[in-house]
From TrEMBL:
CDD domains: FANCI. Residues 1243-1271 are annotated as: Disordered. Residues 1249-1261 have a biased composition (Polar residues). Residues 229-310, 496-731 form the FANCI helical domain. It comes from Oncorhynchus kisutch. This is FA complementation group I. It comes from the Eukaryota. One of its GO terms (molecular function) is DNA polymerase binding.
Length: 1271
């Protein structure tokens, strides 16, 4: 047979057409013959070998026919022995080398023809396959992915999806996703390490991989559209593998979400997964126990941002989903309106801390990055942001304003293309809330510099708004005009550092003078000023905005000084009494308006005066600094502009002089004045606030102008004494139900900083005599520190302060640093302990105010300036002897923080060593709070952190003061540190033993062994400590519950393999071991508490709630092991059995005893105390206890939880073949009980005194009942 074939081949030259056709005929007959099985194996092998040698001589068309023969035979199942298939690869190789082949109506290269064949061959749709065969085929093809070139993957994915119509849908989808996930990881690793040195792994080009991924996503989305079953399987697969998401699967999710029927489900899933990811991260960051147990995973937020970056490679089908996801996150997790429409102000520097804030911030990042990268979606993003600013008037929109601001800063020129959308939004300005208008204008301000049309549109809108019937509309107009004045500087204005910072904060580097000439710009600004002058006749709120904005305008646009000062002067003249002999010097009656019976403020006089003073002082300082360089050319200007300077100075001096002479009777505000809610009372209240404000402004002005003159400081003290007298009257007169909070101070932050430095740190000999005048007044010192405290509190709450430069973050921070330094010096150098006995109370309050100020400053620093905490700590300048050897210098934040922690530790130690009679509780609480705030800056892995926790434990063990607030603060500090160091369960156990020891046992006949791990736990502090301990128990239970949920999530994919069974038999999983130990120690701790005679009410209810929750979590753990034992018979770890034993034989019986104790009614005190109470009090207590018992659901909930736990233990016993119920005792808590001793006592009491049955029976029925229950 072989020799005949050789003869045919020899006589058929491949170059001749007849020879070629004879050769093809030979191949076509030999291949089926070899498959038939009629030939011997050796003969068939020889023939195939011969044909293989001659294949490369065949022409292209013959090779194509041969290849088609093989494909048809495979598809129709005609391949018998499969021997001839050895020839197929050779045919394909020869075919690939062919240059051109006719295919259909056109031509294909041999390589392309080969791909078509493979494609049709891989399409196994037409081949009937059993489920096992289908699964084998899918696995085989998925394994082939790694061996194929990237370009060959998309057609294979397409064929696999067609094949998935027969079954194995989940396997196909998961296989494709895991392949691309692996490729992504490999590509990222190669990118990170540079070019890979491994010869076997070919470096993956990023753009090629992304394009292939994009095509694969399109194929999958197309298949899901056509096959609903595949879509459902995809949803199920995605939801089942929450922790296994990757950038590719997220992109796929977002693409599939464009199909309407899956949209809502997929976005809900993504939203849930994102918040869950942030919550998990949050939980892990707050617990050392969890950090050690589970490694940190790559965050889902980072994967989503990676998807945004990847989408730049032509993934248009993903971008729409990204936009939708971004807005869903921002809408769902943005700030919410608080009570009365208020919201917690988040400053620009506030960091996102909670999971919801982080999710909202992520939405903003997605949209910002999407805007930068994808031109087609820019218009939609901008339109949706602006729409939300206009429509969401009831809820805060700060997050959308921040996003708009980021967009403007990062891509201003791109935004100019959509300027029409911004100008459309301007039309709604007068109807929007003021905060939204301020944010919007501030955000688009850089665009106004380069777009004339936008600026003109805004001015038109603002002019209309100036005459709006709505007050907010007019306030919006003032806001807009002030912003324009600040940012369109007239040529020749001094370029203050503040102005340059504000202008260069954008990438728009366009000088305004290149677009507008100087004269036009000046005319423009003066025109705005004339519009603003009209506001001086409007409501007080509108005028107030103007006065608060003029100083900033002046700083940025110094050429407008003359106009602004003239405006202020003319306004001052209206309220100034020019007659020098008349008192008071201001016309207060003109500042008040009336409408019917209602009296209201018309002119905020104190703010007008404050604005005038600050503008005048700045103007004079600017003139002084400019004069040395100006030579004599400035004289004319002085004559021209000096008029208003002189007049304003004389007015201020006159007001000062006459205000000192004024008595309170001159303002009709003496002690007999009425401050009720009547019209007279309201008028007097307004007068009082105005007069106090005027005094404050004059104090600042005169101190600044005094140049440390003793006589002026004496006058200043006179001003303060009148201010103080009025302040005391206001406090005294304000009704008991009202807040006695003093009005917001008009002193500027900069002045407060200067004043405190002068009062406490200025040691210059030349100034000492003058400053002694101020230092001698304890009230003035306390006032100065309390104003500083007020300013710091405002900064913490809102991110800015009142007065000039209050909005300037850098200047405010600089003042904050100065104030911190002064307060720290004052507290450390003049503590309460060294004050004179006579003046102790007043001086001490100054020290306490300093300490409170420091607490506020440190928390403000962490909240508002997290990146500059080191700078803030460096600003504190301690005494030389402390700072010389151990000063922070250029140390890290942790070292600097530790240094200052030591100072406060010393202060607290001094307090504690002074004995309980000298103990100042308020100061100690403040010190503990400061230590809590500062300890957050320590790195938990650092030596300083360990020292801090050691010191805290030592103080808790040695301090035995009976001060509830102090002990709560100290223990809260201990818990917050301990949880970042190691699990707190052993600490909780020790504290529970101490509480049991202090409060005694629920069985009064049982004497508790006296132990004291922590001296801070005593009779007085034991109950509050119990609540703190139970709160910590709740957190530990949260962690355990979270771990069990994690393990249950891994159970389905991980535990099905038989390999895990052998592993579990040999050794318990570390996570399971850890959570079993946690629960074991926790049960022991609760066992102590449940035997303790806790006082009624909150303590017992909270304990019952935590016990109920403990049993619920034990039930969850039992269910987990039931699932585990279903697949692996009899593999219950010994530790779990011990845990069940502990709960059954120790805790559960004590729980039932505790329930009886709670129900008995003898809660707060012993029987002896109760007997001393009056009959009415006893009845009231009994009624209250009965009501509490009726209302509480804690006891039935606990009994239900215990019974559920026991129910599932029976199931686990059957599954694991371990008798766990041997440790459980049957409950009698629901039984009907007749207590013989109680009955006898009641009858005896009845005989003795018929009248006292009602009050005595409950008392006598309790004690025996307890004795019977305590086994």
């Amino acid at each position: 047979m072989v020799s005949q074939s050789v003869c045919v081949l020899s006589g058929s030259p491949p170059s001749a057409p007849e020879g070629a056709s004879r050769r093809l005929l030979l191949y076509q007959h030999c291949i089926p013959l070899c498959e038939s099985g009629d030939l011997q194996t050796e003969v068939a092998s020889d023939i195939i070998g011969l044909l293989m040698l001659e294949t490369h001589n065949l022409p292209g068309p013959s090779l194509a026919q041969l290849a088609s023969l093989f494909v048809d035979a495979i598809k129709l199942g005609k391949m018998g022995s499969g021997k001839s298939l050895e020839l197929f690869p050779t045919v394909l190789t020869a075919l690939a080398a062919t240059e051109a082949l006719s295919y259909g109506k056109g031509e294909l290269s041999g390589e392309e023809y080969k791909k078509q064949l493979i494609n049709s061959l891989c399409s196994s749709r037409d081949v009937p396959l059993a489920p096992e065969e289908l699964q084998f085929l899918v696995e085989k093809v998925l394994r082939m992915f790694l061996k194929l070139d990237l370009q060959e993957i998309p057609p294979l994915v397409y064929q696999l999806l067609l094949l998935a119509a027969k079954g194995c849908k989940k396997q196909v989808l998961e296989g494709i996703i895991s392949y691309f996930k692996e490729q992504d990881l490999r590509q990222k690793e190669e990118q990170k390490d540079g070019e890979s040195m491994d010869v076997e792994v070919q470096s993956i080009p990023q753009d090629q991989l992304r394009h292939v991924e994009g095509t694969a996503i399109l194929h999958i989305v197309f298949a899901v559209r056509l096959d609903q079953e595949l879509g459902r399987e995809f949803l199920k697969s995605v939801k089942g593998s929450q922790g296994e998401l990757c950038p590719f699967s997220i992109a796929l999710l977002l693409s599939v979400a464009r199909i309407q029927r899956y949209e809502e489900q997929l976005f809900d899933f993504l939203k849930g997964a994102i918040t869950k990811g942030f919550k998990d991260e949050h939980l892990q960051q707050g617990s050392k126990f969890l950090q050690d147990l589970l490694p940190q995973r790559c965050s889902l937020a980072q994967m989503i941002l990676d998807t945004v970056k990847n989408s730049v490679f032509g993934w248009d089908h993903v971008t729409q989903g990204l936009v939708q996801l971004g807005f869903i996150l921002m809408d769902a997790f943005g700030p919410k309106a608080g009570p009365f429409g208020k919201t917690a102000t988040e400053g620009a520097n506030a960091t996102a801390k909670t999971p919801t804030q982080q999710a909202c911030r992520l939405g903003g990042h997605i949209l910002l990055e999407g805007f930068k990268m994808h031109e087609p979606i820019r218009g939609e993003i901008l339109e949706q942001v602006l729409n939300r600013l206009v429509t969401k008037t009831a809820s805060p929109v700060t997050h959308f304003i921040d996003l708009l601001s980021d967009i403007v800063v990062s891509a201003p020129m791109i935004l100019l293309e959509s300027s029409s959308k911004v100008t459309e939004t301007f039309d709604h300005l007068s109807y929007l809330p003021l905060a939204t208008v301020q944010g919007l204008l501030k955000a688009v301000q850089p665009l106004l510099k380069v777009s004339m049309s936008m600026k003109d549109a805004l001015i038109l809108v603002l002019r209309k708004a100036m005459f709006s019937s709505q007050l907010d509309g007019r306030k919006s107009a003032v806001t807009g005009f002030l912003l324009l004045l600040k940012n369109f500087r007239v040529l020749g204005s001094m370029a203050s550092s503040q102005a340059s910072q504000a202008i260069s904060s954008s990438q728009v580097q366009v000088d305004v003078h290149s677009r507008y000439n100087s004269a036009a710009n000046e005319a423009f600004c003066l025109e705005i000023l004339s519009s603003l002058r009209r506001c001086l006749g409007q409501q007080a709120d509108v005028r107030l905005m103007l006065y608060e904005g003029f100083h900033d305008v002046l700083r940025r646009n110094s050429q407008l000084a003359s106009s602004i000062m003239q405006t202020l002067l003319s306004q001052m003249r209206r309220y100034y009494e020019p007659e020098q002999d008349l008192l008071p010097p201001v016309k207060l009656e003109l500042c008040i308006g009336a409408q019917g019976d209602q009296v209201f403020l018309q002119e905020p006089l104190a703010h007008l005066l404050s604005c005038t003073v600050h503008c005048l002082l700045w103007y004079q300082g600017m003139r002084r600094s400019a004069r040395p360089n100006a030579g004599g050319s400035d004289d004319d200007d002085d004559e021209e502009e000096g008029g208003f300077q002189d007049e304003l100075q004389s007015i201020l001096e006159s007001i000062t002089r006459r205000m000192i002479k004024c008595e309170l009777e001159d303002f009709e505000l003496d002690k007999s004045a009425e401050f009720s809610l009547s019209s007279v009372g309201v008028k007097n209240s307004i007068y009082a606030v105005l007069v106090m404000g005027v005094y404050e402004v004059l104090i600042e002005y005169n101190f600044t102008k005094a140049n440390y003159s003793k006589s002026i400081f004496e006058e200043l003290l006179e001003l303060f004494s009148r201010y103080n007298k009025l302040s005391e009257i206001l406090k005294e007169k304000s009704g008991k139900g009202k807040s006695s909070k003093s009005p917001r101070s008009l002193l500027s932050m900069g002045f407060v900083s200067t004043l405190l430095t002068a009062l406490f740190r200025d040691s210059a000999q030349s100034r000492e005599e003058a400053l002694l005048v101020l230092r001698s007044s304890g009230d003035f010192l306390r006032y100065a520190v309390s104003v500083a405290l007020q300013k710091i509190t405002q900064l913490e709450e809102t991110g800015h302060t009142d007065g000039p430069d209050g909005q300037n973050t850098d200047k405010t921070f600089h003042h904050l640093c100065d104030i911190t330094s002064v307060l720290m010096w004052r507290y450390t150098n003049i503590p309460c302990a060294v004050e004179d006995a006579g003046k102790k109370e007043k001086r001490c309050s100054v020290s306490l105010l300093c300490l409170e100020g420091l607490l506020r400053i440190f928390s403000t620093g962490q909240q508002r300036y997290p990146a500059r905490v080191a700078q803030l700590l460096s600003a504190i300048d301690l005494s030389v002897e402390e700072g010389s050897d151990h000063g922070p210098g250029n140390a890290s934040v942790t070292e600097k923080t530790a240094f200052y922690i030591r100072q406060f530790q010393r202060a607290l130690f001094t307090q504690l060593n002074g004995g309980e009679e000298d103990f100042n509780s308020k100061e100690a609480q403040l010190l503990v709070n400061i230590l809590s705030v500062l300890s957050r800056q320590l790195e938990p892995s650092s030596q300083q952190f360990v020292q801090m926790i050691t010191w805290t434990v030592k103080i808790c063990k040695e301090t035995s003061f009976e001060d509830i607030a102090f002990s709560k603060g100290l223990l809260s500090l201990l818990f917050s540190l301990h949880v970042l160091y190691k699990s707190p369960v052993s600490l909780l156990w020790e504290l529970c033993q101490d509480i049991h020891s202090q409060l005694g046992d629920i069985d009064q006949d049982l004497e508790v062994e006296k132990q004291s791990h922590f001296a801070i736990v005593n009779m007085k502090t034991a109950s509050p400590t119990t609540l703190l301990v139970l709160s910590q128990v709740g957190k530990v239970l949260d962690e355990v519950d979270w771990l069990i949920t994690k393990k249950k999530g891994q159970l389905v994919p991980d535990r099905l393999s038989s390999g895990d069974a052998t592993q579990a038999a040999g050794q318990q999983d570390p996570v399971e071991k850890a959570l079993t130990l946690q629960l074991g120690t926790l049960l022991t701790a609760l066992n102590e508490l449940v035997q303790t005679a806790l006082p009624s009410g909150v303590c017992t209810n909270t304990l019952l709630g935590e016990l109920s929750r403990t049993y619920t979590i034990l039930t969850t753990l039992v269910k987990y092991y039931i699932q585990l034992c279903s697949g692996q018979q009899g593999l219950l770890p010994a530790r779990v059995e011990k845990l069940v034993k502990l709960s059954g034989s120790h805790l559960t019986p004590q729980c039932y005893s505790f329930i009886t104790y709670v129900q008995s009614g003898e809660l707060a005190g012993g029987g002896a105390d109760d007997k001393k109470k009056k009959k009415k009090e006893g009845e009231a207590t009994a009624t209250a206890s009965a009501k509490l018992l009726r209302e509480t659901k804690a006891i039935p909930n606990l009994i239900y939880s215990i019974e559920q736990y026991e129910k599932y233990l029976i199931t686990l016993s059957k599954k694991s073949k371990v008798n766990l119920m041997q440790y459980m005792k049957l409950s009698t808590s629901r039984d009907f009980r007749i207590n013989a001793a109680t009955l006898e006592a009641a009858l005896q009491e009845h005989d003795n005194s018929q009248q006292t049955i009602a009050s005595q029976e409950p008392e006598q029925s309790q004690e025996p009942k307890k004795k019977r229950k305590k086994q």
